[in-house]
């Protein structure tokens, strides 16, 4: 009886593609209803990660330890140098690739994460395995890799090493079987994360993700079809046509399956055939091919290293690009961490540059597409290392200086042309018209507050020599609140020409609790104390700094909140002015509206600084006199709000040199010194509304922008086409 046919069964790679497509379709159909699938995807990724650390340990120990002394010496000197050179060349291309990202003028509200102290990275613990077990527990992959390599090298000359090598090999095989079992559920994770991304990501986010995809494809094509083949042809007698002909089968296999391991036999045989064709098939050369290829496979290839580009994209994506000075650290950390899985390396690298770990899911979703392209780079990397080792180590290089000049000339020209062309294309592809000013210009005070306490339209500055007690205000039916015009985000006029802001909202609430209406009276900062004493208004607001000198003339309430000192400067100078120590050397012209006390203290210590007093903040951003001043002294909270109106400006936080502590200051309301009755009432009122969470709520809205825009529900077929759900 004939055996029953089992029928067609898709490969794992095909299954994952199917899962991704089904996930995307599910997300588009159900929209935000499938947001919960993100939890399932995260769980699957965590299962994938559980064997990575021990596998790095045992696989490197067994792979290196089983070598004999002669092979090890040859590999770790000449062949190792070739591998290191290819890493360096690849990292140069990867670190240059972010230039393809288009320039976007963007701005955001203030975030408390900007002023929270960031944990310093202990680079000694990261790279030196003083305690390998601690390194494994803390996820310090570079230190774990160095320990594993050191132990593997040490075992090479140990006589009775077989038991240890066998144990490590057996453990590696067992861990590999666990991974193979877990991989069977990986399509579930792919489906879940694809559904989550397609159902929750906005159109703007998807548009930005295409920047990464295009830049990544260009980088992989450059490395696989230009840089690595040209490197081979420059230092060997092989032609470009020869290199591409022998590698084509492995390239197609890797791209179609996403599996590098199954390409090793193809690379091995084709490499030997190419050596034979050019008469370079000596016994030593063929032996090196047999030894170098499997060893090179255990080390990170350029295909893996290309995912470092995602770290730079992640910073660009959220508007916090990775600092240029951190590029070398990201490159070295990426190389060492990629001895393990990319699913461990990416979260580690994101954390090392203080980017949200949540972005890892974005990488996982895209990795099943990008993985096909980095497979091309991986195959060509293995081919280049193997053939270069066989030719250069055994036969040497004719005229090495000329070969090096030829390669770097072609490498430089092709890289510049390809990246420049990609940048130009992406600049036209991405829409830069993002009107951030509409975010803050459209904000308004809650309707329930304005309904309880109506604003009067009087702008008359009527002198009232008598102090307005709480009883007087209630009898009058109006509390007069002094404010500064254009003091974003505390008191300013929105796009509807309504007076709004954090302090305006507090004024409405104070009036509502008193049971009276509110009249807003504008004042100049220099005249505030006199205006209060003359009774032009009962209380002054607008983010007033508590100043020891001003205390002699006005009475301050309890602290309303604490703000952080900063400089508003053109975007390209933010990094420069973030180093406060530079202010002690540079000649800087700083404009200010408030903070006179701080200016006086600074003038005594920093004689090189020139301060100019402005009446209104808008004067600093005067388009008719751009950059008339080098910087504007204000709070970070206000600076971020102003950057929404003027996105080409950024905020540099002021820190104490040496300590890194932020300069912060309290803000409060001001009253006439003799108005003790109203002062007592407002102090107790502040305690009450703070306990109710009202001040925190206004801070979240006006300072951090929570709720400043109503997030529209993600488009979906089930809601917007079929109308089955609202």
Describe the structure.
This protein has 726 residues and is α/β, with parallel strands linked by helices. 57% of the residues lie in helices and 9% in strands. Strands 1, 2, 5, 6, 7, 8, 9, 10, 11, 12 and 13 form an 11-stranded mixed β-sheet that branches. Helix 1 packs parallel to helix 9, helix 12 packs parallel to helix 18 and helix 16 packs antiparallel against helix 17. The protein is elongated. The two termini are 58 Å apart.
> What percent of the residues sit in helical stretches (DSSP H or I)?
55-70%
Low-confidence stretches: none
Rg over alpha carbons: 33 Å
Number of helices: 30
Tell me, rounded to a whole number, the average pLDDT: 82
Structural class: alpha/beta
| N-end to C-end Cα span | 58 Å
The biggest beta sheet, please?
11 strands, mixed
Strand coverage percent: 5-15%
Number of strands: 13
Summarize this, please?
This protein is an alpha/beta fold and 726 residues long. The chain is built from 30 helices and 13 strands. The chain crosses the membrane at residues 12-30, 36-58, 79-101, 136-158, 185-203, 209-234, 246-268, 288-318, 330-355, 375-395, 407-426.
